[in-house]
Please model this.
Amino acid sequence: MSTAAAFEVKGWCPGVLTPMPSGDGLLVRIRPWGGAFTAAQAAGLAEIAMRLGNGHIDLTRRANLQIRGLRDEALDDLRDALDRLGLLDPDAATEAARNVMVGPLAGTDVRALAGSLIRAIASDRRLALPAKFGWLVEGDGPLSIVGERADVALWVRGDSVALRLHGDWLGVVPRDQAIKAAIGLALGERPLLSAMNELPVAGARCLGAVSGFFGVGAPFGRLEAAQLRTVATTPGISELRLSPWRALYLDAQPADLAGLIVDEADPLLRIEACPGAPACSSSTVDTRRDARRLAAHGFDGTIHLSGCAKGCARSTPADLTLVGDRGRYGVVHNGTTRDPIEKFVEPQSL
Ligand code: SF4
Model:
């Protein structure tokens, strides 16, 4: 069986070299190197989104960033601009393979290992993996992303690294053998591993000041270009680290939060909503407008508004799931967009 066939094929991901059509034009996904953009890169991305896109930027659940609303004729300009920022891959295969999440507060050692992994993935031509094949590199700490989904995960602990394939922690290797062993797992090999004495503890999003960084949340993962520019050009901020929680971690506190969220109790953070209409042509409902209306009313628990049954914004159950269907919402309690609809409601009644 080929390497690719050994893993579930899950479709394709948009990239700078493989733009995806959407309801508001083309969108491109930009993968940071090592989980972070420099402030100069982030400011450049904001400028690109304003000049070439429609100014809307998405923070994705795989800790990447998407620029929306691009036209075909803007793509050459886009790629030149990204090349100047050091964010253009040499080819689409390298770009797609560079799907590595790094903990937002990861220390120097963890980030160094992630950098080695990224370089190894980019140069190892034996790796012909499915487009959505994902990697994760993390250490310990209050914001550890080690509990997030990934096909291969590396948990760094001093001189050793534990390896996880899909959901199963398999064992530990010395740090200097970790890259080879992780790539071996992706190739379907079974490297020699020592037993694990303990399992990692997953962290969770925390906003505001945390361990020398400052977390800011973006409602529904939507960032406007002006917000990104404000944050990226704040004196003292040199780096913006991404997370799978639709939050950015800055290495200094901005004086102007630009409307971003720092209060974990903000109800908008408990609502997931995909772009919906008009941004996505699969939707007949304006999910984010309706989500803001719901948030203003107040509610208990978690809510997921989805423009259609695909459920891009959330795959796990929510207390209340609303699934767009021909201008209405199907209602599901304690489930996902794939569960049976209990009844339909009009958007105006939310
Ligand atoms: S869930 Fe449906 S409507 Fe929402 S972004 Fe995905 S495909 Fe579009």
